[in-house]
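Problem: given the chain below (256 residues), write out its structure.
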Amino acid sequence: EVRNVEAGCRIDASHGEVRIYDVRGEVNVECPYGSVEAEGVGLGFTVVGPHSEIIGRRIQGAADIQNSYEDITLRDAAAVTIRGQHSGVDLEKIRGDVQIMNSYGRVIIEGLSGRLFIEGKSLEVSGKSLTSPEIRISSSYEDVGLVDFSGPATVTLSHGACSLQPRSLMNSPIDVRSEYGEIRLLWPSGESATLEARSKGGNIEWKLPGSPALRKENGETVVKAFPGAAGEPAVYLSTSYADIYLEERTAESRGE
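Solution.
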């Protein structure tokens, strides 16, 4: 255990439990087997723990985490970079950019004020309360769900469902390209943006006010709507052999 250090510290442990509290400088830890827990780090927090659970709270600098087969939990942190395999990632109240490369795991993030980049396969993604200048997510064989988010969002997905509940479409274009997975978009009430939705071998269920400007069915269902909203953010949704659902986001659908 390390506690109340005015400078930084470096810890190399082959296995065991590492506990770090209130370090003003940078923290570097290597712990292949065991667990690492830190609270109150003044600068950067770097951990290499191939088979270690990692927990960090009140991290003032950038967090750079590498692990596999164990969970990563960060609360109240600045920029975050995570490289993992079979890792469960749980982030809350992140003030900087987040970059995650992970496979065969799950990512949960709530409260973000930076960019979000997630890339992996068989990776479930769940995001809430995201205010981001850019969101990019790429995954497969698991679901992606974003609730109460703003900022340009791009999702590339196969064999998984995508559910989006944007806070607003103003300055927040959405681009979802999926294969073999349904797309569900809850449209912010009262807003308009140019829309194009395409489903090859599937249907498009329209539950928005008004009627689509164009609808074709010839092996591919195409819906285009709100053409008068030129210049506003565009929404593009595309999938194959699955359905697209478009409905209005109301207070009831938000669970209020």
